[in-house]
Amino acid sequence: MQITPHVYNMHIDDGATSHPGGSNNFFVGDPSEEMILIDTGDYEREWTRSILDYYDELGKPKITAIVITHGHGDHTGGLDRIHEVMQAPVRCHPKLVKHLQKLLDDEDAVVALKSRERIVTGGGVGLRALFTPGHEVDHVCYYLREDRVMFTGDTVLGASSTSVGDLAAYMKSLELLTKFKHDTICPAHGPVVPAPRGANLVRWQYEHRMGRERQVVAALEKGISEVSKITSDMYPKNLKKGLRPSAERNVNTHLRKLIKEESVEETPARFTLKN
């Protein structure tokens, strides 16, 4: 499906409850010239087949690069099979290079990105690599200035919140993304978010996270000091059972950020505001 003049989306309904709305792999550029592929899908051969079928539909353009958002299996699982067909250099965060070289058994096939590097392809367009740790330390978002599109990987999803390893780093990454003017968000999971909502989604996510942090602090101020009880205080009572573990991880992530900022201290299984 064509999203903008230079962006084409291969969408797959993978049925994952952790990221409703399915998953996406994007081709960027001009199908009559050259294109870039963003991510290579899961280990499932059906996913690989879907990417390659869509590649055929586009006319099998020359792929100038396969760029990776981060090292999770649902983004790199099909890399060996995709690379065998497309024979394009693989570009990724420096911290991910060795892992992908081992996966492909080829040191020359994977080249580290530089922060803010622009990868040029067909149609006179290029992707700007933006290092965005938080979801993972090796995460990269990509900005297409010509179409005002931000490819957010797992940093910002289309229909849900993402999991975060380092919240302090994640918040700085969101702030970075807001500095690049965009109308459309193309996430790795969930629907593409067009204008006008796409232009404001990153800022909304930032404010949403800050709101959650205020809820955590409010719970601590009430003397609630265990993760499970803080979660119960913050989230609705009818929260789906399957979402409870994610909610508790989210609370714990906020607490870790507050500890790092020295506004919260931890005792065994409890958290309290510092005087």
Written overview of the protein:
With 275 residues, the protein is an alpha/beta fold. The protein has two domains: 2-200, Ribonuclease Z/Hydroxyacylglutathione hydrolase-like (Metallo-beta-lactamase, Chain A, 4-Layer Sandwich), CATH 3.60.15.10; 209-273. The chain contains eight helices and 14 strands. The strands form three sheets. It has a seven-stranded mixed beta sheet. The longest helix has 25 residues, at 197-221. It is elongated. The model has no long low-confidence stretch (mean pLDDT 94).
Characteristic key phrases:
2 domains; Metallo-beta-lactamase, Chain A; 275 residues; 5-stranded mixed β-sheet; alpha/beta
List low-confidence stretches: none
Which range does the strand content fall in?
A: 15-25%
What's the overall geometry?
Answer: elongated
Helix fraction bin: 25-40%
Q: Could you tell me the mean pLDDT?
A: 94
Total E-strand runs:
14
Counting helices, strands and paired strands, the structural category is: alpha/beta
So, the CATH homologous superfamily of the largest domain? Answer: Ribonuclease Z/Hydroxyacylglutathione hydrolase-like
